[in-house]
Amino acid sequence: MNEEFQFETLAVRAGQERSQFNEHSEALYLTSSFVFASAGQAARRFSGEEEGNVYSRFTNPTVTMFQERLAALEGAEACVATASGMAAILATAMALLKAGDHVVASQSIFGSTQQLFGNILGKFGVLTTFVVGTEPAAFRAALTADTKLLFIETPSNPLTEVFDIAAIAEVAHAAGALLVVDNCFCTPALQRPLAFGADLVIHSATKYLDGQGRVLGGAVLGKKALTDEVFKFLRTTGPTLSAFNAWIILKGLETLKIRMAAQSANAMQLAQWLEAQPSVERVFYPGLASHPQHALALRQQAGGGAILSFVVKGGREAAWRVVDHCKLLSITANLGDTKSTITHPGSTTHGRITAEARAAAGIVEGLLRIAVGLEAVSDIETDLAGGLASSPAS
Ligand SMILES: *Cc1c(COP(=O)(O)O)cnc(C)c1O
Question: Are strands 280-284 and 218-222 parallel, antiparallel or unpaired?
Fold first, then answer.
């Protein structure tokens, strides 16, 4: 599709291939395999001499439409879809790294990503050093002769720290390494890491790309030469996106921009309200002037995003009281939904890491994270006010 179209247009139209029936909405191709016209065509399809679908572990027309649309939105040359966000990260690591290679990753990353790089890949001889992501110099200091990949997630979870993609890309490229950015929190509606020099973008499509908490999915985007390597791993090993999930997320992409704009605006309003509450010690949200990387966020992002966190005075007891008072917000660690969710990171998403590691990462006992949805902000405030008012510090 014409790449000159605006984001809004690409979101609803890019990638669509109509079948012989000329359907208006994208078709769902629920088939595991495809039939060939002849023995010769089967041979040509299998060898790759002729383009076309063979088997849905390799390619599927609904999945292809999703890949094309997301690539258009990220401004990427190519996209490969995966069964989940973690499958995207695993496939990227398996495709681009080998025993003896070294990775530098920001220490504030998604818990399973930390486990993958910190524990699982180590068994296969790939070692990872975790650094403070807000310091591009920390990445440079951690480089070794074997460093092949730098991995960041910005804004970070749950403290919403913002990392300088362009500066970290420069460090990576000077060392002959690649920069991979997990763009799950901002989505291409608010941030396009490839434009700042990142080599690959990762998505958990489970989150905002679907936007309605229905299915799991993931994607890897960037130059075709790199995504082709990821595709080779996927087609052989199988953590590919199902046609059904691709079809669901395709529809999610159509409303991505308006959802992100509305949920970001809600988050900004809620962050300002929280900052004014006497029982709240501190609010972390990139859209606030009080955020340490506010200026960088303004440069790199088209909005603060829909995730914020805050510290309640009175530690875990006070924080849990706020959670337990909630009647509207869902108590769940999931995010990216139109329904707001609240979680206590210290005892859930970051509960498995040691107390020292948690403290080093700034995950204090009074910290709560909210993924702000599309409810009226006044209703979210009312839901939080009860628990905050009963805090001993208020
Ligand atoms: C959820 C998440 C993932 C993992 O995605 P799944 O679809 O759950 O596998 C990776 N990175 C970030 C930032 C996430 O929030």
Answer: unpaired
